[in-house]
Design brief:
Distance between the termini: 39 Å
Radius of gyration: 24 Å
Strand order of the largest sheet: 14-21-13-20-18-19
CATH class of the largest domain: Alpha Beta
Strand content: 15-25%
CATH topology of the largest domain: Dipeptide-binding Protein, domain 3
Shape: globular
């Protein structure tokens, strides 16, 4: 594996040409945040991109917020709430001192309009299951909202912390039409949408009236920064050079090879999110020949050296994964999940294949009944290419031929919607076991995001029980059954649990990173000049 060279003067000069003049002039309260890719639009109901969420958490608010411990629900637009005994009615008492960036006063009607717009088929809203099975949203008065479900949803409050639940100004939506989230986005957040140049930069200005930030922030508003510029800087070297040369102020998109280098620089502060749940895995399409064989799936799991991958492409910064979700996430069933089939044991992998009749031929690969043990994997570019090359080498040692086809982000999502591959790569954020299991394993989610084609009536029933549970204990019990079932079936090869690092340049104080949906700056209220 070729190790990238450290950022050089050439990288710094290249970045200088990319960054706005205001940043280069070191405007006193302008901060530039560097990231790798842009969003498709800044509309909470029509985009699932992390890049979208990064901005929406700053320009808008949700009813409740998620503590950095990734477990505790805190007030935000809602001061308090109650839940009925049957788990179907949530009553929120809202703040009466909130305004949108436009100056419009926030009321319960705005929450009602936002949810109804999300659920309206005309909106073509994404991940609407995160709203629960909504029966009716009622604005009882300006500061009282009733959120009624037709079925209980045990994780509703956790989902309400996500950017999809951002409250928007429906008047602006009507005004801008399809350009909402492109030419403007009026929210109640600590920053206001100013302008967006796709694939270049997004400019946000301080919301001067803001004073209702989450209680876990020392500064609950207004921001101590006047302007934030989200700048697209796709090259790793240029982001590292930008932080070191004071031409870019913040990035969480630090190449793994540069983390030690930045930590050693006394001018740079590097922080790590204490709790962050983003897992890389390789999935099997279990309806395909060979991938449908449990013995083969178990053997391939045992043939992959997660520790070596964590130390190689991830430079020792990621945690080897031996389960589908992180052991510290809410409702992880550590006593039910058998992690012994998800660790490197090449001898055991070979023995399983031998017992199943797969014999090594003269070319070093295994054959059975004249058929070669060969699988096709579709993969993303970037770090995944290095991961898959390492996996290809591991599987070859076990006598398995892995063919890899690499696609960039503009192509692969379409490819993953087909049935033409045996294995695929994926990484994903989640806030709980239920969040993860309800995404990837309901039979109704085939062919995507349930790309493994898992279809099991008991799984569907347990997911339904977990989703509708009225107690934390009942929720855990249901999701524990699902975790055990899908882990025992070895439908994934877990690779690593990714960490989140945040680098801040010489002008800024250290910034505590938040793990929510991979959007480390969250509200941006912790950004402060030295």
């Amino acid at each position: 594996m070729r190790t990238p060279r450290p950022a050089t003067l050439l990288g710094a000069l290249a970045l200088a040409a990319l960054l706005p003049a205001a940043t280069l002039a070191s405007a006193e309260t302008t901060v530039t945040v560097m990231r790798t890719i842009d969003a498709d639009r800044y509309d909470p109901h029509r985009s699932t991109a992390r890049s979208t969420s990064e901005a929406l958490f700053m320009t808008g608010d949700t009813l409740v917020s998620l503590d950095p411990d990734m477990r505790t629900i805190r007030p935000l637009l809602a001061k308090s709430w109650t839940v009925s005994e049957d788990g179907k009615l949530y009553t929120f008492k809202l703040r009466d001192d909130v305004t949108f960036c436009s100056g419009k006063k926030f009321t319960a009607k705005d929450v009602k309009a936002s949810i109804e717009r999300w659920l309206d088929p005309a909106t073509k809203g994404v991940v609407k299951n995160r709203a629960g099975d909504v029966k009716e949203i009622r604005a009882v008065d300006d500061t009282t909202l009733e959120y009624e479900l037709s079925q209980p949803y045990s994780e509703l409050l956790y989902q309400m912390t996500q950017s999809f639940h951002t409250v928007i100004n429906i008047d602006q939506v009507k005004e801008l039409g399809d350009d909402f989230g492109v030419k403007g986005m009026d929210g109640t957040g600590p920053f206001c949408f100013v302008s967006w140049e796709p694939r270049n930069q997004l400019v946000l200005k301080k919301h001067a009236a803001y004073k209702w930030g989450p209680e876990f922030y020392e500064n609950r508003g207004p921001s101590k920064i006047d302007t934030i510029i989200w700048k697209i800087v796709p090259e790793d070297n240029n982001r590292v050079a930008g932080i070191q040369s004071n031409q870019g102020d913040i990035t969480q998109y630090i190449p793994y090879w540069a983390i030690d280098q930045l930590q050693a620089n006394p001018q740079i502060s590097v922080t790590k999110a204490p709790y962050y749940f983003w897992t890389y895995f390789v999935g099997f399409k279990i309806t395909r020949d060979m991938a449908d064989d449990l013995t083969i799936r178990k053997a391939l799991n045992l043939a992959v050296d997660q520790k070596a991958i964590a130390e190689g492409p991830f430079f020792g910064k990621a945690e080897p994964a031996y389960s589908y979700i992180h052991p510290e996430v809410l409702d992880f069933a550590k006593d039910q999940v058998d992690t012994s089939i998800y660790g490197y044991d090449l001898d055991k992998a070979k023995a399983l294949l031998e017992e199943a009749g797969w014999k090594v031929g003269n070319d070093g690969f295994r054959y059975k009944d004249g058929k070669k043990l060969k699988l096709l994997a579709y993969s993303f570019t970037n770090i995944w290419q290095q991961v898959m090359e390492a996996m290809q080498g591991d599987l070859r040692k076990a006598g398995v031929d892995l063919e890899i086809q690499i696609f960039d982000a503009t192509v692969i999502w379409g490819k993953l919607g087909t049935q033409d591959f045996d294995m695929f790569t994926m990484s994903y954020p989640y806030v709980s076991a239920g969040d993860a299991m309800n995404l990837y394993f309901p039979s109704g989610n085939r062919p995507t995001p349930n790309r493994v084609n898992w279809a099991d009536d008991t799984t569907d029933q347990w997911l339904k029980e977990g989703r509708g549970a009225l107690t934390a204990e009942a929720r855990f019990d249901a999701y524990a059954k699902v975790q055990k079932q899908v882990h025992d079936a070895a439908v994934w090869i877990p690779i690593v649990h990714e960490p989140m690092y945040m680098a801040a340049g010489p002008r800024l104080k250290p910034i505590p990173a938040h793990g929510i949906y991979g959007a480390g700056l969250y509200k941006g209220l912790a950004i402060e000049l030295k």
